[in-house]
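Hi U.,

Before I forget, here's the chain from the pilot set. I'm dumping it here mostly so it's searchable later in email.
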Amino acid sequence: MAFSPMVDELVESLRCLPGVGQKTAQRMAFHLLERGRSGGVRLAGALNQAMDAVRRCDSCQNFSDTDICQLCAKPERRTGTLCVVESPSDLLAIEQAGDYRGGYFVLMGHLSPIDGVGPEEIGIERLLRRIHEEGVTELILATNPTVEGEATAHYIADRLDGQDILITRLAHGIPVGGELGYVDGFTLTHAFRGRKPLSE
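Structure:
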């Protein structure tokens, strides 16, 4: 059954969100129209404002509504350590863990030649400039443990080969509370390669 063009457009617009299919988009649209009109107006205003004002931080490429984001603006975050992540959600996960206190660089993706994503699209040159300008002494490659994430980490490391920078990679392995029988072979291989003495 077809609805009015406005309702149909609302449903189709909601489908642009990841994981939202036709039925979910319809439920969202109907909820906003039936019981959530004030929330819908607020959502529309926030979307309009964000689409107009949010851009990439000039320093780390994370989302920001100012030239330099709040994290990069803090002098205490300039520790000589820079953590490279693929997305803002990765940065948020590390921040919520609460242990890391250095700077970030958000690639906004990973190398994927088949999709036309090369070093220029993810800002590798900007990353290299920042490393040299800020005198970074340790670069943490926190890209995802996927084929593309590994390729991106190796590409960055190769570009810095021979320079006096400690390049580290986040450890991969068995999650706390996990059982060996349920861990995949890829994770087990990384766990064995990253093993360390019990006394550490």
